[in-house]
Amino acid sequence: MKALRIVFVLLLIALLAGAACWFRTHEESAPLTRAWGNVDTRQISLAFEASGRILELLPEEGAPVKAGEMIGKLDTEALRIERDRAQAELERALAQASLSREGYRAEDIEAQRAQTLALQSRFELARRTYVRQKELARANVSSQQNLDDAELSLEASRRELKASEAQLHALEAGLRPQEVAAAEAASRSARAAVASLDYQIEKASVLIAPADGIIRTRLAEPGDMASPARTIYQLSIVSPKWIRTYVTENQLGLVKEGAEAVISTDTIGEVKARVAWISSTAEFTPKTVQTAELRTALVYEVRLEADDPENRLRLGQPVTVDFIPGN
To answer: Which residues form a coiled coil (predicted)?
Structure first.
């Protein structure tokens, strides 16, 4: 019985030693074109460009979204009221600018000319009355009061005539260039105000997915207040995905930017990738590298880009990278 136990222990030791030898041989025989890494987590923090109360948020956490898809919007009632006011101001400014370009109407000029002629007749009558009263006063036929009244009437008629003549001259000359320019500038300012409100309503108050992805986190609900500084959604980019891996100095000569590679895991098939970037600085291997042999070695970070429209690669998933030599 004791002999059987000894034999069993010896067989167990031999089995363990053989397994260790096999694993060591297998690890050491890994090709230089192979590396291990992880799928990088790439996400976008989405926020409204404008501030306001959230009216609607469509996708829930885990929902896929497409680039250009509307995923949320703000209440824009106050902005629409302000836009109506700005539109009315624009129409008024445009009308004023049109009047400035065209000048005064001929009817207005003719009416002012007729008024000026009437005032000229009134002035002439006042002048004759004053002359007559002056002669009568010299002959002691009329009182000094009548002469004073005639003089006051003459001065009043003269002032009215001068004012009317000045108004007629202004109408005939039209508006000054500076006045026309001011009216044009006012119309442009009013147009810009309407355009600004249109942008706030149609663009800044709407949340659009910038890329294909999956909603990873939803951080607000309808009724909450939004601002440009508040993240509403965190969107994980589905494709392309970035794979971060590390190669040794011996492998570095076999890996080139733009070269092709194959990504694989234990659960999915192969996914084609491209080497996008190779670090120029060596570093100690991060703890996430799977092989114990490399953990104390100096390595170079390599990033690969893989198209994954079917979302087979999961964010943070460990992967095996096989570089294709000679390309």
So the answer is: 71-107, 140-174
